[in-house]
Fold this sequence. Notes:
29-stranded antiparallel beta sheet, signal, LptD, 3 helices, LipoPS_assembly_LptD
Amino acid sequence: MKVGLWAFAFWLFLFSRALAVEVPVNITADKVFGNVSKRVEARGHVVITYDKVEISGDSAVYDREKGLLIVRGNVVVKEFPASFRCQSIVYDLKTKRAVLEGVSGKISETDYIKADRIERLSEKEWIAYDGEYTPCKHTCPDWSVGAKRFRILLGESFEGRWVAFRVKEIPIFVSPVLSGPIVKKRTTGFLFPRFGYMSEDGFIYRQPFYIVLGRSADLTLTYEKRFRDGDGKSAELRYVLSEKSKGRLYYYRIDRENRRDWKFTYSHSFYPSELLYGRLNAELVNSREYYKSTTTFDVEEKTRVYTKSDVTLSKLWEHAILNVNAVYLDYLDGSSSTVYQRVPNVNFYLMDIPLPKTPFTFSFDTELTYFYREAGGSSYRLNLEPILKYSRFFGVFKNTMKVSYLISKYQLGGDRSIFKFESKTVTNKYFHLGDTVSVSLNPELSFRFVESENQEVNPFYDGSDRVGKKKEIYSGVTGYFYEDGKEFLRLSISGQYDLYDSEDPWKLWRLDLDLYPLGNLELKETFYYSPEENGLKKSNTYVSVSWGSLSLWANYYSSDLTERVRYVRWGTELKIGVFSLSYRQRYDLELSQDRERSYSLAVNRGCWSGRLTYRWVKNYDNTVDYQVSLLVNLVKLGSYGYKFVGRK
Length: 648
């Protein structure tokens, strides 16, 4: 029976090709009857293929004149990457639109859905009614969202109204609107709310509202409720002036019972070409107390000493570069009025201009800086430094000599002029050790001279106002070791010999070692050795090893360069399926006590990931600050956090 039906399908295919007006429809079933040029019905084990679509079911009707295909009963639809089951489907072969009833399955590699009814508007856009959406591929999804109506863009986003958020099919809360991070058409409305908890502020609820401002700008307004003390409000404006010019403005304020804290930031960048770039950043806070009010998880932000605002403009030519930069640092301890601010700094550098009929190149470095101070003493500094450079090869050696003369003009205080000279010789030697190991050696020998100049009468704005005399020899070599073309060792040794110091001319020697002989073993080492003191001034050792799902690492650090610091850190991580356990510890060798510990449990289920962390830090007064944090990231919905902090 089916052999004859396969012949019928083949005949239908030839008939369609002969008319050359439509893509062929192939139908196989237990029974097929009707007029092939008008209407065909099929019953029993129906399988239909059309273009890249395969549909199977209990019965089907193909109306060739209207271009409609209707399949009912135990329907399975496959159109890569979509694959789902439904009770029935009505498919318009001309527009490729479809209506499906009683649907469940996946409509892309990252989108899974159940719905009473689905309308397919295009290959990308689907609308689901009385549906449940999830990016989780598990039979019982870890989380999902249900709504009366969903709009879904395959692999990109979803959008719905009066959405119920569910965990393991159990409704947790309802939101008036929900949307993923990218939508085909931006629309004004409520975004998904955010939740958090802090020990000092209690439960925190944030509700953002998104406003479309034309084709290239949008505004997000957020209300934040802290149930113990304070309400927050924020506004974020984003705009795009052109493909190479865009900006962002952000304002956040929190009102507490006894105070108000706020922060304002603005950024704009433009890069009309690879040779021109500009950037503006502004950051203001009312006081240091703002960082105690914020819910940020960033420890660096909570310990900020100042805010920074700056403007930068860079222009590049073939042999020149212009940089204009203005920086204002607002110190949160109130000392900004006593600090010199660079407003602005202008640097023009003429680079390596060949001098005609000579082997020399000429450069000229010009820098003008105006130092502003509210407390007084504002003035400018002008640096002029012409540079003459000469390079020559002596066989495999390359020698470069550079002569420069630094001239500084101060508005307040004396001037200075300093002569500089440098001669550097480098080479490269490549050879083999055996059949598989090769080595590349890169030695360097340099002589550096800086003229002695009394600069005590000059102002001190920054470190460049004091240029020390120098007459030294620098030597170093860096070796790269390869096995079968893959690098497994880098070794670098360098040192300085001070010709001005007749008693202890040898200064710090430095050794850097990076060794990774095996894929699961790594060793990094940095030494600073002082011949004058006959001892190590700094040591930084790092070792890591891994076996399958277990990894271990350790770090020893010791330094006497500025102040004595010695500690050891170590940690481990164990991965078990979707779970990851990690532990970190820092031990202060100077104080002989633990300073920091961290325990963490992470999970990655694909459609969501999370991390639970307990961390404590011992302060120098022997008090302990501890923190418990939970961070959950839902695919397409963003991150949500809980933090509990305290001191004991």
